[in-house]
Amino acid sequence: MSVELITLFMFGGLIFLLLFNVPIAFATGSMAVISAYFFWSPKAFHLFPTAVYGMVTNYIFVAVPMFIFMGAVLERSGITDHLYEAVYRWFGPVRGSLAMATVVASIIMSAMVGVIGAIIVSMGLIALPSMLKRGYDKGLAMGSIMAGGALGVLIPPSIMLIMYAMWAGISIRKMFLGAIVPGLLMGGLFLVYIGVRCYFNPALGPALSEEKRISWREKLTYLKALILPFLLIIFVLGSILAGIATPTEASGIGAFGALICAAVYRRLNWNMVKGACITTLKLSAMVMWIGFGAVMFISVYNALGGVTFIKTLMLSLPVEPWVLLVGMMLIVILLGMIIEWVGIIMLVVPIFIPIAAALGFDPLWFGMLICINLQMDVLTPPFGYALFYMKGVAPREITTMDIFRASIPFVFIQLTVLVLAMIFPQIVMWLPSQV
Amino acid sequence: MNVLLTIIDAVSDYSGRLFAFLCLPIIAVIMVEVIGRYFFGRPFIWSHEMTTFLTAVLFLMGGAMVLKERSHICVDVLHRLLPVRIRALINVIGSGFFFIYIVVLLHGGSGFALTAIRIAETSGTPWNPPIYVVKVFIPLATALLLLAGIANLIRDFRVLLSGREET
Fold first, then answer.
1. Percent of chain A, pLDDT > 90?
2. Can you give the pLDDT at residue B114?
3. Considering only CB atoms, which chain A residues are within 8 Å of B77?
4. What is the pLDDT of residue A218?
């Protein structure tokens, strides 16, 4: 069968299975098995366990469960409450202060946890009721929580950056460095957006009343509770970014340090540790089983000549490189509507990286564009994960449409950052080139 | 039949709970490695591989628990809008694809592990541990997934026949 038809069969079949509610981990795996059987040879099945073994015994991947564990323990030690409390006291007199505090607290949380669910669920339980109670616009309130939570997948230590770095053969340290400026830029634009809207229309987010405002001395006491987690983040991320420790070592230290933080806050107990362990096992297994299926899928597709076919096809188009870049970004956006980010990274990276290399794009810059793009994907209706987590914690009277509408302005801000990073590569490249 | 489902559920659940605790020894081994490397100038010969082996088992053994809870990530937005019976029918058809994959992986993985045991394969590093201890977890984890998948299939069949969501 020709490679065109194989491409159509494999990707068409994959999308069909996904729409048939087959989990992506098994949809990719079964398409790999079926395609290998019909177009290659059942002997190819021997590749599958080897691929699984290669993935699970990769030293770099140890950082995935360790960072998940660190985030799960920190989240369970009540740091979110302290953090939100402290930040919003600081923002008190500003219009829209609670929504801004949500974004700032989420940025800080993002440096502790590398996955999206934890931030949205905990901020949704703490920040949403307090905003709605004070008469905040529900769209702005939910939007700031979801957008802030989405930053968790971009700001290091992020599981997405680790998976991308590993699969694309870029150093995790470089990916982390490259993500800092775009992540903070995005968070900054969220704050500007909230600030501007509330400044011109105070009804959206009224400032705290006079008696709720507090003195500088009190503001400082609120910070005291945050010293330990701050030190931990600085130590963990700092040792990776400075190149002192490997990401795996730093993640293990982070997990251990999180337990110490919890002990200091007197939240360390057996049930909490057990809960963190189970969360870690489940999230790691979800990511990895998608990884197994996707690796098998793409290995079979590659062996059947698919990767070379797409590369030749793309490069033969009579267009400028930037058109191809925009095209690849659009493909990632479209795939993002039905495939989870792990799957996209595993499926798309081996196809796109040779094309990007042939076009002379810097691999780090290109990788960061994909990651910014995928971060946008978690917030984009109708299949964004941020929206599902939000729906899970929102009060009953809030409809799915409310949540979709709340996300839209923030999706445009994310898109703006993606476009800016495409036009001005320095946004990504400046920090990695400094160290 | 209910006894069978209860047993499979318990296996999926407790295998997950048990192997989740691997997080703690992984942290401990990394700490030992870090202390060895930065305080005594050299890591222990076993710590690096031990970390990856423990993590490999953690990655593999979580699959069944996640499947039992039906939390493997899928696109279920359209699916949720459908009537219960049609949803169950779609699940039954879709599980065919799941079984194709899992059976092939179980078969391949068993051969992979058995070969490693037969030739007493070791890793070839200075520590040189036998690596079948990790490889056997590939067919084991796949077998647990297969069981959890069978339990899900039985439940979907029941819903298909009765038209009622089981609680």
1. 68
2. 95
3. 382-383
4. 75
Contact (CB, 8 A) for A417 and A154: no
Six-digit token string for A97:
């202060």
Q: Which two tokens stand for residue A93?
A: 């007199």
Residues A206 and A203: their CA atoms lie apart, in Å, by 6
CA distance B164 to A324: 50
φ, ψ of residue A62 in degrees (nearest 5)? -55, -30
Taking CB atoms and an 8 Å limit, are B90 and A21 in contact across chains? yes
Q: Give the pLDDT confidence of B71-116 residue by residue, as tens digits.
A: 888 877 778 788 999 999 999 999 999 999 999 999 999 999 999 9
Residue B122, SS3 per DSSP: strand
Is-contact A14 A28, C-beta < 8 A? yes
Read off the pTM: 0.93
Task: Say if residue B145's pLDDT is above 70.
Answer: yes
Q: Which residues of chain A have a CB within 8 Å of the CB of B109?
A: 48-49, 52
Give me the half-sphere count of Cα atoms (radius 13 Å) on the Cβ side of residue A77: 29
Q: Could you tell me where the DSSP H helices lie in chain B?
A: 2-20, 23-39, 47-61, 63-68, 84-118, 132-135, 137-162
Distances (CA, A) of A17 to A26, A32, A336: 9, 12, 16
| Residue A411 contacts residue A150 (beta carbons within 8 Å) | no
What residues does B130 pair with on adjacent strands?
A: B122
Q: Please report, for residues A133, A249, B32, B34, B48, the alpha-carbon distance to residue B44 in angstroms, rounded to integers and kept in the order given.
A: 56, 14, 8, 10, 8
The separation between CA B100 and the C-alpha centre of its own chain, rounded to angstroms, equals: 17
Q: How far apart are CA A154 and CA A368, in angstroms?
A: 9
Q: What is the mean predicted confidence (pLDDT) over A220-239?
A: 85
Contact assignment for A21 to B91 by CB distance below 8 Å: yes
Would you state the torsion angle of the CA atoms of residues A51, A56, A59, A60, taken in this order, to the nearest 10 degrees? 90
What ipTM does the predicted assembly reach?
Answer: 0.95
Looking at beta carbons, which residues of chain B come within 8 Å of A62? Answer: 26, 30, 51-52, 55
Residue A228 has pLDDT above 90, yes or no: no
Q: Do B65 and A18 touch (CB under 8 A)?
A: no
Residue A95 neighbours by CB under 8 Å, 6+ apart: A195, A198, A199, A202, A205, A206, A207
Q: How far is Cα B2 from Cα A1, in angstroms, rounded to an integer?
A: 47
Please answer whether residues A143 and A342 qualify as being in contact, where contact means their C-beta atoms are separated by less than 8 angstroms: no
Q: Rounded to an integer, what distance in angstroms lies between the CA atom of residue B153 and that of residue A280?
A: 27
> What are the pLDDT digits (tens) for A179-216?
999 999 999 999 999 999 999 988 888 877 665 666 77
Reply yes or no on whether the pLDDT at A87 is more than 90.
Answer: no
